[in-house]
């Protein structure tokens, strides 16, 4: 299926093609075929956004009093399915921010105290259906 066809499907699902280019149309012009995972730059803004979303999910599930944030993305793939699936290998580290203060992760520094430092490697799948404004993390494994 060509990118133009995917864009048309995206516009039909969104209900209008008159809106300015959005996340949906940008992502579906990647030039990749549906069903085939392809490498994507680890610095791509969509990858960074997906990695942040998966780390936020990790923070919601962990009992740690400190928040974690992404330290390094080592590998990223994108797959066109019903939406887009980002498969990300990311290193996350404990920050100095406590969960109770609810700061944005952008303002959290990594722990410098050796007794509190902790780093985990995670594999995450972030599934995005932009025209439905829907995001899910069906896979999140950290060790």
From TrEMBL:
Q: Residues in domain Cystatin?
A: 32-143
Q: Which GO terms describe its biological process?
A: immune response; lysosomal protein catabolic process; negative regulation of microglial cell activation; positive regulation of myelination; regulation of antigen processing and presentation
Gene Ontology molecular functions: cysteine-type endopeptidase inhibitor activity; protease binding; protein homodimerization activity
- Would the keyword Signal be found if you checked this record's keyword annotation? yes
Which parts of the chain are coiled coil? none
Q: Which family does it belong to?
A: Belongs to the cystatin family.
Any GO CC annotation of this UniProt entry: endoplasmic reticulum
One Pfam family matching this protein: Cystatin
Please indicate if the UniProt record lists Disulfide bond as a keyword.
yes
UniProt entry keywords in alphabetical sequence: Disulfide bond, Signal
What is the name of this protein? Cystatin F
Question: Where is the secretion signal located?
Answer: 1-19
